[in-house]
Amino acid sequence: MMRANNSTVSEFVLLGLSNSWEVQIFLSFFFCLFYVFSLTGNFIIVVTVTSDPCLHSPMYFLLANLSVIDLIFCSIAAPKMIYDLFRKHKVISFGGCISQIFFSHAVGGTEMVLLIAMAFDRYVAICKPLHYLTIMSPRMCLLILVAAWIVGLIHSSAQLAFVINLPFCGPNILDSFYCDIPRLLKLACTDTYKLEFMVTANSGVISLVAFFLLIISYVFLLITVQKHSLGCSSKALSTLLAHITVVFLFFGHMLFVYTWPQPDSQIDKFLDFFDAVFTPFLNPVVYTFRNKEMKAAIKRVFKTLLAFRNIS
User: Taking the model in full, what pTM does it have?
Assistant: First the structure.
């Protein structure tokens, strides 16, 4: 990444989460645990959906891609955050900071589209069951995936355009453990009022609109489910509740950061940690523990792997 022409800052100092060495040791164990669980849980979902023919359906195709996104997302900031907990002087280069911003917004934008696609998938499955396989064909699923990544990359590039050419001449201290646009704008050596408004419009308003549309659509689906028989209703209700939980987890942090006028630093840090490590861990937990088909498929995959190991 090239630095802006008028910038004298080549790196940023990260204050992290705490100045206490004892607290940092505790946090490092805690973060490592959740990071490993996030990687393991999402990897298991991807392998299970790929390996088990019973899960070769549009819903699980989208779920597997959501897990791929979570695998990428939890690896953007968490490894450096864990590494920095053992360092007294925590720094990140200008290029590293810009890279974190680019990849986090690209993956975040992609996940937003996938969550909308998953809501549409549930709408078709519940409201138009006879046309489900025709509408949610393999070609449609692939188009949704490609469109999601294109939207994510366009959104990230638009966000990056706001900060890539800003002059940074000091101070260079970020009160966080990773880079994000709202904090970076405060360090620019120029008036960023208009840019802050553009960032809010680009991320905050879009997130707010998408969140309310998803909630309204799921409320409609929940009402529709009540008209079905008890067996179908129970299964559909469980799936919808899992989807709604993930929507709240994903949009909660984003709405607070990009729409709250005067965010509190400590609350910001907590939500940043929750978003970087905890949310990717909760997604597989929500989808796996609430889904009998997924749990049964995971057992079949593990049995197959054990049988193959015993034979070899």
Answer: 0.86
